[in-house]
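FORM 12-B: Structure-to-Sequence Request
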């Protein structure tokens, strides 16, 4: 794997975060709720504190971002967004392995129509805890 680095986001990075989110998950969100740009920008600002976000750099190029939330039980993976051009190249697997190695319980949510992401999480040992009409709620126990 070529060089992957994580770099802390700052308060000035919301536009860059939005562009990554739009590129990586817009088709999935659009099919479920539609894509209202104003809503998505506001939602990102409200639910994505920059202090929790690290940009994913691949050979110096920003290709995504990761947002982790520490909980009493472990870590909630709030966001793992990788732009389309870099999806399915092992980067998500690499990052998940790093997170898994901390030995904590991991949890996340994924839209049911995002089969690529769901398949990655299943491959990495996550199991479905519950589901609703739109999402799977997954966990991965400590090893």
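FORM 12-B RESPONSE
SEQUENCE OUT:
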């Amino acid at each position: 794997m070529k060089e992957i680095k994580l770099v802390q986001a700052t308060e000035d990075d919301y536009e860059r975060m939005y562009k990554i989110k739009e590129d990586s998950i817009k088709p999935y969100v659009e099919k479920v709720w539609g894509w209202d740009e104003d809503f998505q920008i506001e939602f990102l600002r409200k639910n994505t504190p920059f202090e929790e976000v690290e940009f994913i750099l691949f050979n110096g190029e920003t290709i995504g971002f990761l947002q982790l939330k520490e909980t009493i039980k472990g870590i909630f993976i709030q966001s793992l967004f990788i732009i389309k051009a870099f999806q399915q190249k092992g980067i998500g697997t690499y990052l998940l392995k790093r997170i898994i190695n901390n030995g904590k319980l991991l949890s996340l949510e994924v839209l049911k129509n995002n089969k690529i992401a769901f398949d990655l999480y299943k491959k990495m040992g996550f199991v479905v805890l519950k589901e609703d009409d739109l999402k799977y709620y997954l966990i991965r126990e400590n090893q």
